[in-house]
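Changelog note: in this version the structure field was regenerated for every chain. One regenerated record is shown below for reference.
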Amino acid sequence: MLLVAGLSFAEGKKHKLSRDLEALKGGHNGATMDVIIQFNQTPTTAHHQKVQGKGGVLKTNLDFIKGAHYSVLVEALRCPGGRL
C-alpha cells in the first residue's frame, strides 16, 4: 500500500497528512507503511536524514515532484510538534 503524505519540512510551514494517513496514525505500534513525502524543494541529504532520524527508510528519490518514497513507522506520522 502506498499513501501520499504531503508534508512540508521548511521551518514555519504547515504540515499536512492525507485523510487516509490521519485515520491510521493511532494504534498501530510497530507497523510500517510506504509513503511519499513532498517537500518545498528537491529533498537534500538533510531532509532524508531528518526522516531517517524518525525511523524512516528511503526507498526512492522522486526529485521530479520534490519528494521521496519512504517506509515509515505509523506512529512517526505525527510526533510532538506535528512533524514527521
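Spot check on this record: The beta strands are 2-5, 32-38, 57-62, 67-73. Confidence is low (pLDDT under 50) at residues 1-12.
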